[in-house]
Amino acid sequence: MKPIASGMLLCMLMAAPSPGATVFPYKYHQETLPNGLTVLVIPMESGGLVAYWSVVRTGSRDEVEPGKSGFAHFFEHMMFRGTKKYPGPVYDRIVTAMGADANAYTTDDYTAYHLAFARESLARVVEIESDRFQNLDYAEPAFQTEAGAVYGEYRKDVTQPFFLLDEKLRDTAFDRHTYKHTTMGFEADVKAMPQAYAYSRSFFRRFYRPDNTVLVVAGDVEAKATLALVRKHYGAWERGYVPPKIVPEPPQKAERKAEVSYPGQTLPILDVAYKGDALDPGNRDFVAGLILGDLAFGSTSVLYKDLVIRQQKVEFLTASFPINRDPPLLEIAAMVKKVEDVRAVQEAIDRTIEEFQARPTDAGRLEAVKRHNKYGFLMGLDSPDAVAGSVARFVALTGGLDVIDRLYGEMDQVTPQDVVRAARKYLQPQRRTVVVLKGAQP
Amino acid sequence: MTGTRSVQIAVLGTLAGLAATMGTAAETKATLPVRQVVELPVRDDPTVSFRIWLKVGSQDDPPGKEGLASLVGDVLAEGSTQRNRYEKILDLLFPLAGSYSASVSAEMTVMAGRIHKDNLERYYPLLVEAILEPAFKQEDLDRLKSQTLNYLENTLRYAGDEELGKAVLYNAIFAGTPYGHVSEGTIASVRGITLEDVRGFYQRHYTRDNVVIGIGGGYGKETLDRLRADLGRLAPGKPPEVPPPEPKPIRGRQVVIVEKDAQATAISLGFPIGVLRGSREWYALAVANSWLGEHRNSSSHLFQVLREVRGLNYGDYSYIEHFPGGGHLQMPPQNAARRRQIFEIWIRPVPNEARHFALRAALRELKLLVERGLSEPQFELTRGFLGKYVLHYAPTTMERLGYALDDRFYGVDGSHLERFRRTMGEVTLEEVNAALRRHLKVENVQIAIVTRDAKGFRDALVAEAPSPYTYPTPKPDSVLEEDRQIGTFPLGIKAEDVKIVPVGELFVK
User: Fold this and answer.
1) CATH topology of domain A26-234
2) What is the pLDDT averaged over residues A240-256?
3) Which domain holds residue B64?
4) By the CB < 8 Å criterion, does B474 face chain A?
């Protein structure tokens, strides 16, 4: 392995322009191989570092079979168990020897496998990554051992109040759609994973296919040579993605409510969630909705200043209006200092919503959110790994990168009246699920 | 309306106090000398990174006021200034996508922020005012104290047993020293902290002689000159330096068991070590530590033994430097530097029925490492790995600036990360094994455990009860044979060395 020049730590360059007509600041090369594999190469000066992301467009959303929740995440673990050519320990040794930072994660909509390494290792990485995506091979005992590690991950997470809250919220809000369960899965399913070896093989055959995968290579790379490497190593991968039959969630007809008990001590948490829309840059309501979350509930909102800073009734207030493949939940969550104030806090949230439905928002604040979003996105692109990580969700949801400029372009066009319309459309009581988490008293 | 009125009174009181402070500063106004600047220019970086380092931390908390340094940092970063109320500051920062935050560890306080160059002019005054002209408002302090108390009473005790176990470990090892409390303090001390405490601490420690400017990215000379002049307005003075803590020697295996109705058992263990980054011996020890337990990496031997082969938990790691936030950080944090470090093993939650087995397995692996040392292939693989892997410790300007400040803290001549990489090409197996034998001791260890049925576990530990572990799935004979050795591995824990603490009694005072 050729050592990296010692001055490299001091010369990482990042030449991102200011936000203009297009937001994504790097030129990139996109190619789709005959087998359906999409490859995005984003050359950027980065002092010799490269980020290599394999984004499989399958997440817990795709877990349609009963009893198999959490499987996309479990499968992510299995991808490190190796192939005939490079068994798990050999794969690990290769990655260790190249000093790569390698890991993976799973979300509701996709699973990402990522490595960061010195550019000299690119060819080797293409080789080992293409091998495991085509030839993964593991025996039942290894599968069962890994199930223990996944259960350990569940045990580590379950002590967090927000984990329990999320479990309850999804389970209450969704009847049919697979967003009903968390990415970790129902505990009973996690516990039963060791019995699902055969199922795991079918999971690989159906979802780990080139026509369901996007490669993102960012950093100190040359596009032509990188694409040639990818063609050589991934060309024989057979297409065969079998899309899961995901049942759309029927329209919600009435408000839902639930409570959840946390066995430890915590301040109560109020979560008010509304059914939103899937990612669609052409849907002005969706785009205005993204802005609405910040305007109405973000750190510069009237509500935040009232509840967190002036009245100090809540420890924190946060809104998550996410970008998903199918309609997700738009959540407003508040950790309330006194349990008797939960109702008052919910009423304050309701009044805020009524206000946003009744009157156009201040144009200056709207512009501030647009500016914040653009600069925030740009500033997040500060290393090859950060660039690949920032685009992973977009490529997972749409298969490409052009959605970013379309989304931010559309955001530029959003007017105060659009925000009113989004508030009226999404923040309706019949789309709402309210969950309150309460802890044990001291 | 009552609230508004009391706010106005507080503002008037604060301004009077500060006028006096600013008067003193103005009389001795001076630009900060170059020796108090750490620069990391990156010409084409479209952003500017700031890390303003105050040489103060939780070790400087006055007795009975534990958590004060941390609250002062919070009040500056998340409170009003004389020019702007906190709400207004949020409004001004938001369109810039800029922010600043304070991190307070045992020995360092760093106010860090990053901004796109387009927005620098509007961001800069806000950052500087936060440090130079805090308003010290009662309502800000109330809000931030409430957050801290929520952390101590609820989050730290209940929301994550791993961080809880680590906090208990550090508090036990450094009990009775200035490192002996988490930087957030205790419930009783935080409740007792007043605005006067905050103001007084700020005046003593946020001085011109106690600050170092860290600046990186695409800034120009004029920005640095302006910052040197502005921070030169801080009052002069250098508070007395707290001597490095001298933890009491650990005799034998000391155990704290936190009694909690936990679904799984979190285990941390460790002991002080007398070696700091910068010395060649530290880099040699880093090779042994990386082999045993590189953080969040499957190359960790402990990870292989407990997770990969046995599926007992999510991960197992070891450390020779303090690593706060290990549950969410992939790489080591910056600006948590300390003059006293411990060696630490972190075993992520295991099923309760595997707790005895897992503790034995971890201590057995440590003992085997000390007895056998690293083999030539293990050494070669690990030093090759580290020589490249440390590149990922700081891929961004902000992170590298953090390392540059830490270099100043530790007195490293040049860059620690560069020295780390260079030393990996020079260090020998003999040096690595000598370093680990010198610094890693298995006899005297502090152990912290978060679990249910603490008494039952104590009895099993003290009785050296066998702890066979039965897997839900078949395992190869080689694993089962090793398990027999682990299951009877002697821990040598005496009854009088086991302390049981109900979780509700932690961090009280």
Assistant:
1) Cytochrome Bc1 Complex; Chain A, domain 1 (3.30.830)
2) 96
3) 2-231
4) yes
